[in-house]
Design goal:
eight-stranded parallel beta barrel, globular, alpha/beta
């Protein structure tokens, strides 16, 4: 029985083990604050994932977290949701519109348009690093990775990639290993022991992520602790107050924030 348990533990560790390498970008990220979807505030007419939000973050020296997804005609745009409903007032999918059609919409009650990845790269010009979240699933993940990688291959600035979908770090593990790649995660909503052990980390044997972006509200969870013990670089998301940041700062090494300016 002891041997069976030992074998099961070894198999489990093999499945969830992150990358064994210590990527050079770890030291570039250490202690850095990362503006979630840019430095945005609707009160100041600066919507999330907009060019003013990105430029404000860059001007203050914060790294920038963005979300990318594909349009109907395969363009890479920066937008968080599947649908335009929350940010643009129309219940229609980003994937159902061409880039030209998307550019007719405005973010919130502002005149800001939905930016493309190319537009952001041209505006930031490498002044601060980018943390790029890939919004995709099994249907279009490879296409998004291919198109984004083609755009980013000509960029001189620093950037890192992450996703909740394990297929993204898996793609980069196969096609562009030099990029610092990560797995986004939070707790599983199931019951019992599965709540603690089931997570995207179970696919680490395919993607071998260099870092873990974990929901700061669950910083004490076993799976996150284990990923750190096994060597994954820990990033916390999304801190919304200085109090929350101060409380759990030592549990992470980089910090995604919004709604306040961190100290």
């Amino acid at each position: 029985m002891l041997y069976i348990l030992l074998i099961l533990i070894i198999i489990f560790l093999f499945l969830i083990f992150p990358s064994v390498r210590r990527h050079n970008d770890r030291k570039n990220l250490k202690g850095k604050f990362i503006a979630h979807r840019g430095l945005h505030s609707l009160e100041e007419n600066t919507p999330e994932n907009s060019m003013p939000a990105f430029l404000e973050a860059a001007a203050r020296g914060y790294l920038i977290e963005i979300d990318i997804r594909l349009t109907k005609d395969g363009e890479v745009v920066i937008f968080h949701d599947d649908s335009l409903k929350r940010m643009c007032g129309e219940d229609i999918g980003v994937r159902d519109l061409t880039l030209l059609e998307l550019k007719e919409y405005r973010l919130g009650a502002t005149n800001e348009k939905i930016p493309t990845l190319k537009e952001l790269l041209n505006a930031v010009e490498g002044r601060v690093a980018l943390l790029i979240e890939f919004k995709c699933d099994g249907k279009d993940c490879n296409e998004l990775c291919e198109r984004a990688n083609a755009i980013l291959s000509g960029y001189d600035g620093e950037y890192y990639v992450q996703s909740f979908y394990p297929g993204v770090p898996f793609w980069y593990n196969r096609h562009n290993k030099k990029i610092f790649r990560g797995q986004l995660a939070t707790v599983y909503e199931g019951k019992g022991i599965m709540r603690h052990i089931f997570s995207p980390f179970i696919f680490n044997f395919l993607s071998r992520p260099d870092f873990v972006s974990y929901d700061e509200k669950y910083a004490n969870r076993f799976m996150f602790w284990l990923q750190k013990v096994l060597g994954a670089y820990p990033i916390g998301w999304t801190f919304e107050t200085q109090e929350a940041l101060s409380k759990d700062k030592k549990k992470f090494k980089s910090y995604i924030f919004e709604k306040f300016l961190p100290r």
